[in-house]
C-alpha cells in the first residue's frame, strides 16, 4: 500500500475521526526536563499530568510530544518512565513526525525536508571539524546529523560550518542546545516548523485547534514559542539558553510564561494561567463527595483509589469495600485476563487481601489512552490501558469496560456494568514502542 495512503488512514481514523470538532487544546511538549523530570524518582509531576490529561482532555484534545530524541531513544524513555501515549510524536528535533500508537510516519513531511538536503555532503564537511564529536549511530537520522561540541567552541563552529554548507549548495539549519548538542538539519526542519506544518494540516482539514500550548526547557524549544497564536511555557528549570532567547526576543510577550513549577507541574500551571481548561489533577483531589461527571474521570479515579488502597493511604474498613460495591451494578461481571468470569461485587471482596501490600514501596498505577464511546444514552463503552509500576517492575493490560449513569440504575455517578481485560500475553504488545 502507498505510504501516503497509510498515513492518511492513520491520520483520519486515529485523530481526525476521533474529534467531532476542532481540538479544544493541542498541547505540544518537549520530553526531557519538560514533561519528564529526571530528578524526580517518584515521577510525581508526570503522574499528575497523566491523570489530568486522561480525565479531562484525552476525549477532545491532542497531545503532541516534541523531542530531540531519535525514535530509538524515544521508545527507550517510554520504557523507563510512566508516560502516556501521544496522538502525535515529533522526534529528532522536528525532522520526523509520526501518528498514533503505531507511529506511522508523515510522508509529506519527509518529501518537504528532502529539498536542498544531502546528508552525505553534511557528513563529508562536518568530518573536517575536529571540534565535532559524532553522537551515537541511533541519533544519526535521515534528516539529522548530530554531534557533541564544547560550549565555548559552539558559536565559531556553527558560523564556519554554516558558510561551508551554503557554499556546497545546501540550505541547512544548525541548532545548539543543552550546552553540548549540535544538530545539523534541513533548513525547513525543527520543532517550530514541524508544529507549523501540523497546524496548517489541521487548518486544511477544517479542524484547527482552538488553543495550542507549547512547553519546553532548552534552546531547541525556542522556535515552538515563535509560532503565531501559540501559548508557551518555559518550565521553572528552563536552561540558560532558552531564558536568554526569551529575554532577547519575547520578554514582553504575555503569551509566554516562565512557570514557577518544575517540568510537568509547570505545564499544569500554564494550563491554569492561560485559562485553557481545568488544571486540577485528580491526583491532587481528595474525596470531595462530588458526583463523577464523565466515564474518563471515573476510570482515572478508580485506578487512583486502587493505588491508594494498596499503598495503605486510605483507611482499611468495610465502609471502603461497601463504597466500591456501591459503584457496581448487581449484574456486573469481570472478565479476568485468564478468561475466568466473576461477579464484580464478589470479586471486590478480594481487595481485603491486598490492602497495604505496596505500603512504603514506589508503587504507582496510571491509565493511558482512555477512549469512551456512548453506545446508547447513558451507556458508555470505555477502552484503556492500565499500567502498574513497582520499583523497576512494570506490567500492564488493555481493558474494556461498560459504564452506565442511567437514572433508573444509578442515583448519581456511573455504575460498572462489565469490566474485562485482554490476556496477559498482550502485555508485551502494550509495552511502549
Automatic annotation (TrEMBL):
Domain Sucrose-phosphatase C-terminal span(s) in chain numbering: 297-408
Substrates-to-products reaction catalysed: sucrose 6(F)-phosphate + H2O = sucrose + phosphate
Top EC group: hydrolase
Pathway(s) this gene product operates in, as recorded in its UniProt entry: Glycan biosynthesis; sucrose biosynthesis; sucrose from D-fructose 6-phosphate and UDP-alpha-D-glucose: step 2/2
Classification via Gene3D superfamilies: 3.10.450.50, 3.90.1070.10, HAD superfamily/HAD-like (3.40.50.1000)
MF GO annotations: magnesium ion binding; sucrose-phosphate phosphatase activity
Positions of the Sucrose phosphatase-like domain: 24-275
Co-factor requirement: Mg(2+)
Record-listed E.C. numbers: 3.1.3.24
Keywords assigned: Hydrolase, Magnesium
KW Hydrolase (keyword) present: yes
A GO biological-process term: sucrose biosynthetic process
Membership in a protein family: Belongs to the sucrose phosphatase family.
Its job: Catalyzes the final step of sucrose synthesis.
PANTHER family hit by this protein: SUCROSE-PHOSPHATASE 2-RELATED (PTHR46521:SF4)
Subunit structure: Homodimer.
Protein name per its UniProtKB record: Sucrose-phosphatase
Amino acid at each position: 500500500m502507498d505510504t501516503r495512503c497509510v498515513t492518511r488512514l492513520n491520520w483520519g481514523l486515529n485523530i481526525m475521526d476521533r474529534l467531532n470538532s476542532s481540538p479544544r487544546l493541542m498541547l505540544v511538549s518537549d520530553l526531557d526536563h519538560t514533561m519528564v523530570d529526571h530528578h524526580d524518582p517518584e515521577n510525581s509531576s508526570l503522574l499528575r499530568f497523566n491523570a489530568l490529561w486522561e480525565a479531562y482532555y484525552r476525549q477532545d484534545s491532542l497531545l503532541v510530544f516534541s523531542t530531540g530524541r531519535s525514535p530509538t531513544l524515544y521508545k527507550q524513555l517510554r520504557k523507563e518512565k510512566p508516560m502516556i501515549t501521544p496522538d502525535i510524536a515529533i522526534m529528532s528535533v522536528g525532522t520526523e513526525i509520526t501518528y498514533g500508537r503505531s507511529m506511522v510516519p508523515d510522508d509529506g513531511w519527509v518529501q518537504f525536508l528532502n529539498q536542498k538536503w544531502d546528508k552525505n555532503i553534511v557528513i563529508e564537511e562536518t568530518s573536517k571539524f575536529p571540534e565535532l564529536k559524532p553522537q551515537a549511530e541511533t541519533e544519526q537520522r535521515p534528516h539529522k546529523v548530530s554531534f557533541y561540541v564544547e560550549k565555548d567552541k559552539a558559536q565559531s563552529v556553527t558560523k564556519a560550518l554554516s558558510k561551508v554548507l551554503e557554499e556546497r549548495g545546501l540550505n541547512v539549519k544548525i541548532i545548539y542546545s543543552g550546552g553540548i548538542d549540535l544538530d545539523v538539519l534541513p533548513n525547513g526542519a525543527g520543532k517550530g516548523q514541524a508544529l507549523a506544518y501540523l497546524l496548517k494540516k489541521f487548518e486544511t482539514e477544517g479542524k484547527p485547534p482552538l488553543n495550542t500550548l507549547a512547553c519546553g526547557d532548552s534552546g531547541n524549544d525556542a522556535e515552538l514559542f515563535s509560532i503565531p497564536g501559540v501559548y508557551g511555557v518555559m518550565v521553572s528549570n528552563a536552561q540558560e539558553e532558552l531564558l536568554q532567547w526569551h529575554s532577547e526576543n519575547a520578554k514582553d510577550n504575555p503569551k509566554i510564561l516562565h512557570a514557577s513549577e518544575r517540568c510537568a507541574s509547570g505545564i499544569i500551571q500554564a494550563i491554569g494561567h492561560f485559562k485553557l481548561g481545568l488544571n486540577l489533577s485528580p491526583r491532587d483531589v481528595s474525596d470531595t463527595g462530588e458526583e463523577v461527571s464523565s466515564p474518563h474521570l471515573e476510570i482515572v479515579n478508580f485506578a487512583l483509589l486502587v493505588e491508594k488502597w494498596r499503598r495503605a493511604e486510605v483507611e482499611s474498613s468495610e465502609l471502603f469495600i461497601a463504597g466500591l460495591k456501591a459503584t457496581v451494578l448487581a449484574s456486573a461481571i469481570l472478565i479476568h485476563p485468564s478468561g475466568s468470569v466473576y461477579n464484580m461485587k464478589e470479586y471486590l471482596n478480594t481487595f481485603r487481601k491486598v490492602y497495604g501490600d505496596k505500603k512504603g514501596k514506589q508503587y504507582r498505577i496510571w491509565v493511558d489512552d482512555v477512549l469512551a464511546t456512548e453506545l446508547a444514552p447513558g451507556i458508555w463503552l470505555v477502552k484503556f490501558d492500565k499500567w502498574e509500576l513497582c520499583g523497576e517492575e512494570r506490567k500492564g493490560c488493555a481493558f474494556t469496560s461498560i459504564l452506565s449513569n442511567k437514572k433508573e440504575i444509578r442515583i448519581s455517578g456511573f455504575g460498572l456494568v462489565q469490566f474485562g481485560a485482554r490476556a496477559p500475553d498482550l502485555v508485551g504488545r502494550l509495552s511502549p514502542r
